[in-house]
Amino acid sequence: MTATPAPIDTVVYDVGNVLVHWEPRGAFAAHDPADVDAFFADVDFAAFNHLQDAGRSLDDGRAALAAEHPRWAGMLDAYLDGYPGSLTRTVEGAADLVAELKSLGVRLYGLTNWWAETFHHALAAAPAIGLMDDVVVSGREGIAKPDPEIFRRLARRFDVDPARAVFVDDSPVNVAAAAGVGFHAVRFTTTAAFRGALRDLGVPVRPAGAA
């Protein structure tokens, strides 16, 4: 006889591009776009950003930038100064869904790759984060997704059973990592689609478009 799946009691949210849109070029509104493009390409900003997400200190980031790309040494502070501009808007419908899950008694956690020094901007830009029971921020942990250990760390810290938890993220590699640890893992595209995925897993949220 097939065992009945355990009911979902926890939802674990990524933050960037799931609760709030993040576009790093938005931090450089006062700069020539051609210079910004050159900076992103020369320093491999995605790789640089991941090291900061994983807990590298600002001092070490500055030192690495100055040593490897002295032309762009000032751009890190420009990025930090303009950082609120990178959080362009909340994701449509996300706050309502978080509030609804909270009203249903679902436990809510965040698990985000984010610099320790800039996460306070996310809290201001996406008030739904305040409804979370807690948030694991990679830059504070010194480890970042998709490392499986950060998922295990969240599960241990908050007594989360992955078999009873949904993890949602816009990154396919992070979704795959969560699934490998045993979470019901959903790739985020839209809040409406995520509502449908939750309903398929037995979470009694309203259908997309319902009043």
From TrEMBL:
Signal peptide per UniProt: none
Q: Which domain of life is it from?
A: Bacteria
Q: Which InterPro entries does the record cross-reference, listed alphabetically?
A: HAD-like_sf, HAD-SF_hydro_IA, HAD_sf
Q: What is this protein called?
A: HAD family phosphatase
Organism per entry = Xylanimonas protaetiae
